[in-house]
Amino acid sequence: MTTKTLVFLLFAALTFSLTSAWAGNRAPDAAHGKTLHAKNCVSCHDNSQYTRPNRIIHTFGDLRARVEFCDTASKANFSSDNLDDVVEYLNADFYKFEK
Predict the structure, then answer these.
(1) 59 and 7 in contact (C-beta within 8 Å)?
(2) N or C end of the chain: which has fewer CB within 10 A?
């Protein structure tokens, strides 16, 4: 393999890995979501909201939409990653929806 080919392949691999990181291939962090939830969400409601029999959340999409709604209503201004983290926490601890 020539030096130029090797340099090109290394550059291509580095570019691909950085692009993947920038593209949002980050795994949601439920522990961080729990912290955000405790700081921003419990001022309006406690965890019984998620376990009541007549809850309004029935799918993972519903959950994401509701967290986005609450983010706007509370003016928490979560980043996309923070929204993902809160949704991950709620789903892992309460809802258990398939993604």
Answers:
(1) no
(2) N
21 assigned to some structural domain: no
Q: Please report where in the chains the tokens 């969400």 appear, as a residue.
A: 41
DSSP letters for 38-56: HHHTTTT--THHHH-TT-S
SS3 (DSSP) at 67: helix
The string of pLDDT tens digits covering residues 28-45 is 999 999 999 999 999 898
Residue-wise pLDDT for 77-88, tens only, equals: 999 999 999 999
Q: Which domain holds residue 88?
A: 27-95
Q: Which residues contact 91 (CB under 8 A, 6 or more apart)?
A: 60, 63, 97, 99
Question: Does residue 10 form part of some domain?
Answer: no
